[in-house]
């Protein structure tokens, strides 16, 4: 249902799709807890901040958007790989997703910035915007990350520094 909505094959009320995305996160909560208890570090692409930012950018009340996320596992660290929406629009295939509209993306970025707290690391990036949440204090040093050049440093180096930070 979510995939067909994202690819514009179906229509849903904005509140309904927000709750479906949140329900998807709640569906995985128990599995995430089990993995964390076993010492696994989870690297989660986007997670709940994304749902809140996108739904609020559509005009839904920010507090209403946050409410279904209450009680989900909070990330220890959020790496926000930041790129201007105009730059993101240059990537191949941009525009096929329901939310890949330049003016809408600008609103989403505003909400991401509004949601930031002390767990966030903002990284200026020369690729598509991604939010990665690291959850779990037992960060694994062997986590395999792709190499990207970010502000003169390798992304792996930046990510490992952040992982070490969450261990302390």
TrEMBL record:
SUPFAM superfamilies: P-loop containing nucleoside triphosphate hydrolases. Keywords: ATP-binding, Kinase, Nucleotide biosynthesis, Nucleotide-binding, Transferase. InterPro entries: P-loop_NTPase, Thymidylate_kin-like_dom, Thymidylate_kin_CS. It is an enzyme of class 2 (transferase). One of its GO terms (cellular component) is mitochondrion. It comes from the Eukaryota. Its EC number is 2.7.4.9. The keyword Nucleotide-binding applies. GO terms for biological process: dTDP biosynthetic process; dTTP biosynthetic process; dUDP biosynthetic process. Pathway: Pyrimidine metabolism; dTTP biosynthesis. GO terms for molecular function: ATP binding; dTMP kinase activity; nucleoside diphosphate kinase activity. Signal peptide: none annotated. Residues 1-117 form the Thymidylate kinase-like domain. Belongs to the thymidylate kinase family. This is dTMP kinase. It comes from Rhynchospora tenuis.
């Amino acid at each position: 249902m979510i995939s067909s909505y994202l690819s514009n094959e179906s229509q849903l009320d904005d509140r309904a799709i927000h709750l479906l995305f949140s329900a998807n996160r709640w569906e995985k909560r128990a599995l995430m807890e089990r993995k964390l208890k076993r010492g696994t570090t989870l690297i989660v692409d986007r997670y709940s901040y994304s749902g809140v930012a996108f739904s609020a950018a559509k005009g839904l009340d920010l507090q209403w958007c946050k409410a279904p996320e209450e009680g989900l596992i909070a990330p220890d660290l959020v790496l926000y790989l930041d790129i201007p929406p105009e730059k993101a629009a240059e990537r191949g295939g941009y525009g096929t997703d329901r939310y890949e509209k330049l003016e809408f993306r600008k609103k989403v970025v505003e909400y991401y910035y509004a949601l930031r707290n002390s767990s966030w690391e903002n990284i200026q990036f020369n690729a598509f915007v991604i939010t990665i949440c690291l959850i779990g204090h037992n960060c694994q040093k062997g986590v395999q990350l792709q190499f990207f050049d970010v502000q003169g440093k390798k992304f792996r180096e930046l990510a490992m520094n952040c992982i070490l930070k969450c261990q302390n």
